[in-house]
Amino acid sequence: MGTHLVGTDLLFTLVLKVGWAAALAALLVRFRSFRKLVFTENRDSDQKVMLLLFLVPPLAIGAMLRLVAGYRFFDLTLEGSFLMGLIGGRVVGLLGGSLISLLPFGFHEWLAAPVAALVGLLAGTIRQAMPEKEDVWHFGPFLFLNIPQWLVRLARQRKGDWAMLPLFCCAALEVGLITLGDFVPSRWIFSIHPENWGYAALVVLSSVMCVAMAVKIWNNTRIEMNLEQNQQHLLKARMDALTSQINPHFLFNTLNTVSSLIRFDPDMARGVVLKLSNILRRLLRKHETFVPLREELDFIDDYLDIEVIRFGRDKLQIFKEIDGETLDAFVPSMLLQPIVENAIKHGLAPRLAGGQIHIRTHRRDGRLSIEIDDNGMGMTPERLLEVYGGGIGISNVHERLRLLYGDQFEMDIRSQEGEGTQIRIEIPELATVEPAVL
After folding, report:
1. Are 16 and 36 in contact (CB under 8 A)?
2. Strand 2-4 vs strand 191-193: parallel, antiparallel, or unpaired?
């Protein structure tokens, strides 16, 4: 049915209409499933159905509130149909427009369903015609301010802007709806009839703003999700880079051990090669960010067996105090080896005899604590900063923990010259192997 509004009533209705469109768009984007639908450009049939399920009910309720309670600003049939076609394509636009207008059709608004379906189909055709679907998201509330610039570029460079197409089409459809309302019985279709062309321009502008506000709100969410996804990819790349620095660092030292042993003790070298094969088997299989502590300790056992053979049992002894409840806890892969390697290289290698490494684990209040002590040479604060702050091994361990746990981990390093070094790591106890940030 046609509705004649003038002056303040018209302005009040149009402002509330734009506000309702923006509020509805902001409400929908709070749902995680809807955000995923908006973020996805190429949707399958199930995703298109989900898009309809999110958009059709609130738009249909808006039409019902207009019919039952007389709140005209709630009716976004034209804008909603256009938006569904523009975002979801021709099928979504056609079906969505038809479903929204079912109730008005039941109230004898005979043109509501065909007009809404046509609007949705036309918007979907516009989306299909765009070479770059990303141009859909350039349709913003103030795009009309770029029309003069667009006209100049079109005249000089023969280059248009696809984002202008939905803008002009949306405005043209509202003009067409106003015109149609003048030629058919008022009860056949709902439209707002302004008293002059000045008010008509405001009606057209409000319709464009309703669509543009929704697109803008959803596009901001898409940008945030894209930034989050890129950040996750960046963190994953940094993790891979840090891990790739650890593995060659370890292999270089181990192969030096093998090359020195094979000259004077072939049997012992054979034992080292067997241990090394176990280590390589672990390193060459598919990369895992997290592994059970049990597996990490087995890896360290193979490494330490090689080092004990190299240095001799009188110079290097290993003591472990492992809480059995911690063995199934997940820890970052290659967490302990760089720490143990630095303890041997910087702390115990200069000693003549009696070198010891103590490894302890325990759990408390949902957190896993790992301690690695050595009775080596120890270091001055300056030397500690130089070795453990700039060395590849320990600095990478700290960086990996920071990337994986954020501020939820602790890594404490204490060293006393002539007495030894203690490293304590405390991390949240994970129940799965998937890191929170990746």
Report:
1. no
2. parallel
CA dist., res. 34 & res. 14, Å (int): 27
Sheet with strand 316-322: strands edge to edge: 316-322, 355-364, 367-374, 420-428, 410-416
Give dist(CA 258, CA 352) in Å, integer.
Answer: 22
Query: Residue 272 carries which side chain, given as an amino acid letter?
Result: V
Tokens representing residue 95 in the block: 């079906």
176: nearest Cα among 131, 113, 116: 116
- What is the DSSP track for 268-318? HHHHHHHHHHHHHHHHHS---SEEEHHHHHHHHHHHHHHHHHHH-TTTEEE
pLDDT digits (tens, 9 = 90+) for 361-418: 998 888 999 999 998 888 777 766 665 555 556 777 888 888 788 888 999 888 888 8
Place of tokens 């087995």: 298
Q: How is 153-181 classified by DSSP, letter by letter?
A: HHHHH----TTHHHHHHHHHHHHHHHHHH
* Extents of the domains making up the chain: 2-224, 265-428
C-alpha span between 185 and 187 (Å, rounded):
6
Return the half-sphere exposure (C-beta side, CA atoms, 13 A cut-off) of residue 239: 23
For residues 255 and 399, the answer to whether their CB atoms sit within 8 Å is no
Tokens (6 digits) for 363: 């759990």
The angle subtended at Cα 64 by Cα 62 and Cα 69, nearest 5°, is 100
Beta-carbon count within 10 A of 396 CB: 19
Torsion of CA 87, 88, 94, 98, to 10 degrees: -80
Plot region of 208 (φ>0 → left; ψ -120 to 50 → alpha; else → beta): alpha
C-alpha dist (Å) from residue 352 to 37, 339, 376: 66, 21, 10
Rounded-to-integer distance, Cα 126 and Cα 93, Å: 11
**Comparing 152-161, 236-245, 418-427, which segment has the lowest mean pLDDT?**
236-245
Architecture of the CATH domain 265-428: 2-Layer Sandwich (3.30)
Strand partners, 328: none
- Rounded Cα distance between 3 and 195, Å, is 11
Residue pLDDT, tens place only, 245-256: 555 666 776 677
